[in-house]
Specification:
The complex is a heterotrimer of chains A (126), B (292) and C (434).
Chain A lengths: L11 H15 L11 H8 L3 H13 L3 E4 L2 E5 L9 H21 L4 H16 L1
Antiparallel strand pairs in A: 1-2
Helix pairs in contact in A: 1-3, 2-3
Chain B lengths: L5 E10 L2 E11 L4 E6 L5 H8 L7 E6 L2 E2 L5 H5 L1 E4 L11 H9 L7 H11 L12 H13 L5 E5 L7 H16 L4 E5 L3 H7 L2 E6 L2 E7 H7 L1 E7 L12 E7 L2 E6 L6 H9 L1 E7 L2 H8 L2
Parallel strand pairs in B: 3-8, 3-9, 6-7, 7-8
Antiparallel strand pairs in B: 1-2, 1-4, 4-5, 9-10, 11-13, 11-14, 12-13
Chain C lengths: L1 H12 L2 H24 L4 H28 L10 H30 L7 H22 L4 H16 L1 H9 L2 H21 L28 H10 L7 H19 L9 H19 L12 H31 L7 H24 L5 H17 L7 H26 L20
The chains are: A mainly alpha (126), B alpha/beta (292), C mainly alpha (434).
Chain lengths: 126, 292, 434
């Protein structure tokens, strides 16, 4: 379900937080979906369970996940626009920076890049 | 915050003219899995053995479970599990006899756990220790260290000779131990990838000093590599704040910085009239950069 | 050639002690030479003798250890012409020893205007050969020590009876020389063709079979587990009794034939001291294993180790009692005063060796000097055929005082023993690879 790379420069908990956040935002994790338990996920990826708990706790604090007594964490019911636009834009910034850098390296102009973005957006709307 | 299990205060260890450890202060809290990382000869073994009282420090002191490490009571010592780096097994005993001898010292020896792990890890018990492979010896030694459910488990290079499967099994067992948040594990290893999976805290030992100690996550967020691309050539002696190493080639520069704050990227970009890309570094790269 | 010379150098400098002795010998030799020039006496010969004793003699023993230590690792077998070079090194070593001895003899003979005697050279060569071979064997497997024992008994037997004694003296010198050369040829052939050379074993360990088949389930108490750790012997081993009986049997044989060696000669105290010292050393080096298994501070561990050492000593004393009884019996019919003196001598020597080992954590120059002095006293004062009772009492007193002093020294040093440095000794290789 998740890609965990312990050797990455990004801490494991942050990788999880980012992935889960994106999956929820993208709709792949619908409200009410149960996530794997801390122990199962830790065993699957052979990482310290504490780092999984840290990720889950952070997401719970942000309101994306909710805890159930005796059962694993589950995706909280989504409220539209729960985070302000500026915050959501901030989350996109790293990806955008990467795209712009790649475009510059490939000597692709701004107009062409915007057009490409538009095409990609159209594709996913269907 | 809970009471620390181990407290080292200003520990210095001098052998003749060389200082193996200089002014080391550290704490081990329950629930920690601490990875000790360092070059060969940096002082990892000296540190671990001094913490457990095997070696009296030249200066400073160590307190374990609230008692002086050099004068621990029976109850304190029974809560410690130790795996030394150099094999201390008798070549002429077999695994079963070794486990029996070790078990005789601990009233809380968990025979069921040891039997289960022997089966899972494939540790031969009926062959003499000198006929076992290095990996099998190491697995046996690990079992001797954790069979009595110690509250403090100290392992010196526990997985150096284990194959990847055995290392995974070992890590899983570590996590099971650490689930009990009254326990702590302290292990030194060269295998950085294992540390990245298992440790929540890291001690980096360099030339006998604790160069860095703290959370692994914080370390990864603190040490980054900056890629700077400017419109005009950058000065050869470019000074980037908190940089460990800087390399300038024409319009571009690479700098490894410590104590990084994300907000500093924009400040630096404006200052140098350039784009600044931040590359997060894995633990192995961080270790290499800290030793440049 | 370079490699062979390097190995040769290692024979003389392997142990720090050897280097110390070399320096002392050079200094003393130099001083004596200068003194000789001043006094216009040829004292340089004496100086050379001192240098030779201090360097060549220890080198003879350590060369066997170094030779084995270098020959054993399989990686070394891959070096080009490795074994040939090692043999060259040994040949050079022998040549150096013989040449030095020859030089000494030449100096002494030129003093008296006599011709250079070749016979002592042959004997020296044979002696060096025998010593090297026996030490080499022993460092591979300590059971060869029985060969030493057998040789001593055999030689004593030969010397005891006038007929054989005369026959021995009449053996032509060249016979010894030829035997020694033949031994070297055989050794060289074996060495070049041996598939595997056993690694160096510095101290004897209990044999592997001591533990095989021992089922410890339900047998171990904390106390017996502690003992097993420290002595590396299984609990409740009845083999001890068997060993004691064999030991006494051999001792009987030794006494019967070694009439030249009375109970109060240096043989018994020297042997007891050295054997107990080596056994005590391996126990002391295992003390590290007790640290996390025994409550309290370092003195507690020291007391437990001391208890183990004294049990060890007790076993040796029982054996000595048997030997004493044999000496007192009609077999040797030694007067009771002498029996008592001999027993006290050996017992205190054992005590000395034990406590010297306890204080050697690790050892230092003080140890070795004290040991050397005692050995000197033993050899000097207790030389056969019949050392006086007064001498025996003197040496016993020295041993006892030495033991007490070492104990006090040990108690002080153990307060800060550093187990980072004091580790179990490398184990013997009396087992075949699986």
């Amino acid at each position: 379900m998740f890609v965990v790379n312990p050797q990455s420069g990004t801490p494991i908990y942050r990788q999880l937080v980012e992935q889960i956040t994106r999956l929820i935002a993208g709709g792949q994790l619908a409200a009410g979906t149960e996530l794997p338990s801390v122990r199962d996920l830790a065993e699957l990826h052979t990482v310290n369970p504490m780092t999984i708990s840290k990720a889950y706790a952070l997401l719970e604090a942000e309101g994306l996940l909710e805890r159930q007594r005796g059962k694993p964490m589950r995706v909280a019911a989504r409220r539209r626009n729960q985070a302000p636009l500026t915050q959501r834009l901030q989350q996109l910034e790293p990806a955008v920076r990467d795209v712009v850098l790649a475009a510059r390296q490939l000597e692709v102009g701004k107009k062409e890049l915007v057009a490409l973005l538009g095409d990609e957006w159209e594709k996913n709307d269907g | 915050m809970a009471e620390p299990l181990v407290v080292a205060r200003n520990v210095t260890k001098v052998f003749g003219a060389t200082a193996a450890l200089t002014d080391v202060s550290a704490e081990v809290f329950p629930g920690d899995i601490i990875g000790v990382l360092g070059k060969n000869g940096a002082g990892k073994t000296t540190l671990l053995e001094t913490l457990l009282g095997f070696s009296p420090p030249s200066r400073g002191n160590v307190v374990v479970f609230g008692e002086d490490a050099l004068q621990m009571s029976a109850s304190a010592k029974s809560r410690i599990g130790f795996l030394p780096q150099l094999d201390e097994m008798f070549a002429m005993l077999n695994g079963k006899q070794h486990l029996a001898i070790v078990a005789a010292f601990h009233s809380g020896w968990d025979r069921a756990l040891v039997d289960r792990l022997v089966a899972e890890w494939g540790v031969p018990l009926t062959r003499r220790v000198d006929s076992l492979s290095v990996g099998e010896r190491q697995k046996l030694a690990v079992l001797c260290a954790l069979g009595h459910h110690p509250d403090l488990l100290v392992l010196d290079e526990p997985v150096a000779s284990l194959d990847p499967i055995a290392r995974r099994q070992f890590l899983q067992q570590l996590f099971t131990i650490a689930e009990n948040d009254k326990r702590a594990v302290l292990f030194s290893s060269h295998i950085v990838s294992d540390l990245e999976r298992a440790a929540n805290k890291v001690w980096i030992v360099k030339d006998g000093r604790l160069h860095w100690q703290g959370e692994l996550d914080a370390l990864k967020e603190s040490v980054v590599r900056l890629h700077i691309h400017a419109r005009a050539p950058l000065p050869a002696d470019l000074a980037v704040p908190n940089a460990l190493a800087t390399r300038v080639t024409g319009n571009s520069a690479t700098a490894t910085v410590v104590q990084w704050e994300p907000a500093a990227a924009d400040t630096l970009a404006k200052q140098l009239d350039s784009t600044v890309n931040v590359e997060a570094l894995g633990l192995e790269d961080i270790f290499l950069e800290l030793h440049r | 050639m370079n490699a062979a010379l390097r190995v040769l150098w290692t024979f003389f400098t392997a142990l720090p002690l050897q280097r110390w002795l070399g320096v002392i010998g050079a200094v003393l030799g130099g001083l004596l030479a200068i003194l000789g020039v001043v006094l216009q006496q040829p004292l340089w010969t004496l100086g050379f003798l001192v240098l030779l004793i201090l360097t060549a003699f220890p080198a003879l023993f350590s060369s066997a250890a170094v030779f084995r230590a270098l020959s054993a690792p399989r990686a070394n077998q891959l070096l080009p012409h490795f074994r040939a070079r090692m043999l060259v090194a040994i040949a050079l070593f022998l040549a150096a020893l013989v040449a030095s001895f020859a030089l000494l003899l030449f100096a002494l003979s030129s003093l008296g205007d006599r011709a250079l005697p070749l016979e002592p050279l042959a004997y020296a060569f044979a002696f060096a050969t025998a010593t090297f071979m026996l030490m080499f064997l022993q460092f591979g497997d300590w059971r060869w020590i029985w060969l030493w024992f057998g040789t001593t008994v055999g030689v004593s037997l030969l010397l005891a009876f006038p007929a054989t004694r005369l026959a021995l003296a009449a053996t032509p010198t060249w016979a010894w020389l030829v035997t020694a050369i033949a031994a070297w040829i055989a050794f060289a052939i074996w060495y070049v063709r041996a598939r595997r050379i056993a690694p160096l074993a510095l101290v004897p360990q209990p044999h592997a079979r001591a533990w095989s088949g021992v089922d410890l389930d339900g047998l171990l108490t904390r106390e017996s587990a502690l003992r097993a750790l420290v002595t590396a012997r299984p609990p409740r081993s009845g083999k001890r009794v068997a060993q004691a009986v064999i030991g006494i049997g051999l001792a009987t044989a030794a006494i019967v034939v070694s009439v030249p060696f009375p109970f109060t000669s240096f043989v018994w105290p020297f042997a007891t001291m050295v054997i107990l010292w080596s056994k005590a050393t391996s126990i002391v080096h295992r003390s590290r294993l007790l640290w996390l298994r025994m409550p309290g501070a370092r003195p507690a561990v020291r007391r437990e180790i001391e208890r183990a050492l004294l049990r060890n000593l007790g076993g040796a004393l029982l054996l000595l009692l048997g030997v004493a009884a044999l000496y007192a019996s009609p077999l040797a019919a030694v007067p009771p005063r002498e029996v008592l003196a001999g027993f006290a001598l050996a017992a205190c020597a054992g005590l000395f060796g034990t406590y010297a080992a306890l204080a050697a954590i690790p050892g230092n120059v003080v140890h070795l000097v004290t040991f050397a002095l005692l050995i000197l006293a033993q050899f000097a004062l207790l030389a056969p055929p019949s050392p006086s009772l007064t001498n025996a009492v003197i040496v016993t007193a020295i041993e006892l005082i030495g033991a007490i002093a070492f104990r006090a020294f040990a108690i002080a040093r153990w307060r800060r023993v550093d187990w980072l440095r004091l580790r179990p000794l490398p184990q013997s290789n009396m087992f075949r690879d699986a």
